[in-house]
From TrEMBL, chain A:
The protein's name: Unannotated protein
A Pfam family of this chain: DHO_dh
Annotated metabolic or biological route of this protein: Pyrimidine metabolism; UMP biosynthesis via de novo pathway
Domain Dihydroorotate dehydrogenase catalytic: residue ranges: 6-289
Species name: freshwater metagenome
TrEMBL record, chain B:
Species in which this protein is naturally found: freshwater metagenome
Record domain Oxidoreductase FAD/NAD(P)-binding: where: 120-213
Alphabetized InterPro entries for the sequence: Cyt_c3_hydrogenase_gsu (IPR012165), Dihydroorotate_DH_ele_sf (IPR037117), Dihydroorotate_DH_Fe-S-bd (IPR019480), FNR_nucleotide-bd (IPR039261), OxRdtase_FAD/NAD-bd (IPR001433), PyrK_electron_transfer (IPR050353), Riboflavin_synthase-like_b-brl (IPR017938)
Protein name listed in UniProt: Unannotated protein
GO molecular function: 2 iron, 2 sulfur cluster binding; flavin adenine dinucleotide binding; metal ion binding; oxidoreductase activity
Domain Dihydroorotate dehydrogenase electron transfer subunit iron-sulphur cluster binding residue range list: 228-269
Keywords: 2Fe-2S, Electron transport, FAD, Flavoprotein, Iron, Iron-sulfur, Metal-binding, Transport
Recorded family membership: Belongs to the PyrK family.
UniProt xrefs under SUPFAM superfamilies: Ferredoxin reductase-like, C-terminal NADP-linked domain (SSF52343), Riboflavin synthase domain-like (SSF63380)
Cofactor(s) this protein requires: [2Fe-2S] cluster
GO biological process: pyrimidine nucleotide biosynthetic process
CDD domains per UniProt: DHOD_e_trans
Amino acid sequence: MFDYKTSLGQAEFSNPIFTASGCAGSGRELSQFFQLSELGAVVTKSIMLKPRSGRATPRMAETPSGMLNSIGLQGPGIDIFLEKDIPWLREQGANIVVSIAGESVDDYAVLARKLRAVSGISALEVNISCPNVENRGQVFACQPNTARAAIEAVRRNIGGELPIIAKLTPDVTSIVEIAQEVVAAGADGLALINTVLGMVIDTNTMRPKLAGKTGGLSGPAIRPVAVRAIYQVHEAMPHVKILGMGGVASGRDAFELILAGASAVSVGTATFGNPNAVMKIKEELANELISHGFDSLKEAVGYAHRAEGNLL
Amino acid sequence: MIGINKNATQIMAEIVSNKKVGAYNHIVFAVGDIASRSKPGNFVAIAVGGSNSAMVLRRAFAIYRTFDKGSSGGLLEIVVAPHGEGSTWLTNQLPGYKVDLIAPLGTAFGIPTEPVRALLVGGGYGSAPLFGLSEVLKNRGCRVDMVLGASTAMKIYAPLDGKRSVNSLTTVTEDGTTGITGKVTDVLAEIIETNEIDIIYSCGPMGMLEAINEISSKLDVMHQCAIEESMACGIGVCMTCVLPIKGDDGQIRMLRSCIDGPVVDGESVVWDSKRSIPKGTWGAH
């Protein structure tokens, strides 16, 4: 009997396929296509303290095997989110990972306090790496000290046993250094990777295509970057659980991230192209693991790191 | 709220026919019971490029019309302008090929309960959804006038049976190759006043919709328009296709054109907000 279960910190999940934050709306949009309870977890769109309009349009540009987005964390704010979205997701029987984003260290502290007593949440994804902010200095995960401060603020205020997963950007000199900082600050796991900062120039208008000029690159184009980041971090800290993401569009792709060291995999851009992508990938990954001779998902995590010559 | 995408299903739909009409392709898909659930104004989202394509996002097309022939024989038709790589790929697919299609999506044109005098205005292939709408309106006893505009005659989409479904058809081209020379907005005021129009339905480029709304607003005529903003998913999860829309409470919000649109009240759109978030928008920062 194949064992598909996985865990991140103390949180257990029936399978390792999650949505990616910002790629599953409130959950309601996808529930027309499949049962949300079939997912390892729904990772909600990063929520901020206050309602947020997000950035102006155009917000999107398709690129070879990917896309740029510049949404800018549009959302209703934590209070409406807790009142409307969380109870609905709970009713669906979904495993919930709440993603939070702040503009200041204090925002993260307040968000953590608002979430500490909320029941039915499996884990907290702390997004400290959204690229779609006006000031690059606001990307906490770009500097070890700011990354640490944001995660410490959550750790101090969350209390209890809710695992903290810090979401990092690959747009840094050393992602391992940032990863070590946030783990030291109290992160139980890491979400790797956020989108990669990019730009498209419209050759007709001869200006940046996105209103916000820069955007986050996602989709299969960035998968090798994700695999590299997960591999490097898992190598440095093999005991820290990783929620992997970046261009996963098939079970084979998810398997690649698992081999690099991910214990679970979020699917984002693939859902835009196919609302049933997560269900397809969940089935394909299980087949992939079984056909390679694994009895459980856990055996395959980080398997690419084994010593030379070792085959299953 | 749980009704998001409630009529939509994802299917592999076979191309039944694909014919070039002027500058466009008229493509017919076998869609089963999706046909009976689709209304004028709804759209389809189609995956392009085949499996393992470098084009990872769906393409959205307004539904031209549907034929409900029960669960086995429902047909859905679209009109495609081969603009970019994705739409060009679609126009090159032959009958028998199956595409991954999600429909029906988005809002539909509101149909008045009374028999009113309606003016339908289409720009380029934007005329497509207006013919299905025209049939529904005629069945309700409405008078339907239509104005179609494009840069040139080749880009006017007006099939013969479509023409039959309206009381009058005026065509306008910028280069004068057919009909009146100029823009659709040049002829609107006169038609609205002469025919005592109660409501305008429009579909086409955003610039045209904005210009129509200026006229409808001035003459105090209702205006429903099908807006377009580039979409990544078509089902409401990506948040890229938003527009500033003023609600009944007077609050401007960035709403998704795939869920709260494509058909919206022209008066509710904050038109002059290109590449910026209007002041006072909910959550503006």
